[in-house]
Amino acid sequence: MTTTDTRLPTTGGIDIGEVEALYRKLLVALGQDVDSEGLRDTPARVARFWKDFLQHDPGTTDTAFTHQESGGQYVVVSGIRAWSLCQHHLLPFRLDVHIGYVPAGRVLGLSKLPRIVQTYAHRLQIQEALTTQVAHEVAALSGSGDVGVWSVGEHLCMAMRGVRDQAARTTTACLLGRLESDDRLAERLRTAAFLPLGAR
Ligand SMILES: Nc1nc2c(ncn2[C@@H]2O[C@H](COP(=O)(O)OP(=O)(O)OP(=O)(O)O)[C@@H](O)[C@H]2O)c(=O)[nH]1
Ligand SMILES: [Zn+2]
């Protein structure tokens, strides 16, 4: 996976006028009075939401600094918060994402890690794919093959509908390079990632 993979995997652009018209039709089909005061502007608002969500610009993600003295060091940024939308129900899921890597001569700008998460969160997603995509992007941008990403998700499609389990949390992890093969290293980074979150 390369940095160019941050483009949306869509089949076309967003026709915001058509989205608005379709939402108007949807509300009618749902038996709603679309000309009532509260709903009159809703199709346009929701169309704007989709455009903002899917075309969100996370900003520059590829600033990295040479750091040859990084031998033996690891970097962990934990508690990155993001919202995404599940592919199956188009309902939000909230994520806490924790990223760790062992630099290989270069370190990424710290703010770039939340920006990378946002890049992949602003898609119709499943949590597992997002976790994998973030790990590969961090690897590509940092030049380090030793990357771990842990995501803890709360899915509204499980909480407010369907099984209606409000307490369930989903943890997904993607371990690359030495984090995959070296259990002790992976555990050190995982512990560092989750440690500061104990009080939450
Ligand atoms: N693996 C995975 N599944 C997800 C994610 N988000 C939502 N799902 C699941 O997608 C599945 C879709 O299942 P279906 O049986 O097709 O749909 P459904 O009848 O609405 O399922 P219920 O949610 O069980 O009511 C559900 O089990 C969801 O919990 C995700 O990020 N990863
Ligand atoms: Zn869902």
TrEMBL record:
This is GTP cyclohydrolase 1. It catalyses: GTP + H2O = 7,8-dihydroneopterin 3'-triphosphate + formate + H(+). SUPFAM superfamilies: Tetrahydrobiopterin biosynthesis enzymes-like (SSF55620). Residues 20-189 form the GTP cyclohydrolase I domain. Keywords: Hydrolase, One-carbon metabolism. GO terms for molecular function: GTP binding; GTP cyclohydrolase I activity; zinc ion binding. Pathway: Cofactor biosynthesis; 7,8-dihydroneopterin triphosphate biosynthesis; 7,8-dihydroneopterin triphosphate from GTP: step 1/1. One of its GO terms (biological process) is tetrahydrobiopterin biosynthetic process. Its EC number is 3.5.4.16. GO terms for cellular component: cytoplasm. PANTHER family: GTP CYCLOHYDROLASE 1, GTP CYCLOHYDROLASE I. It comes from Streptomyces caelestis. PROSITE patterns: GTP_CYCLOHYDROL_1_2. It comes from the Bacteria.
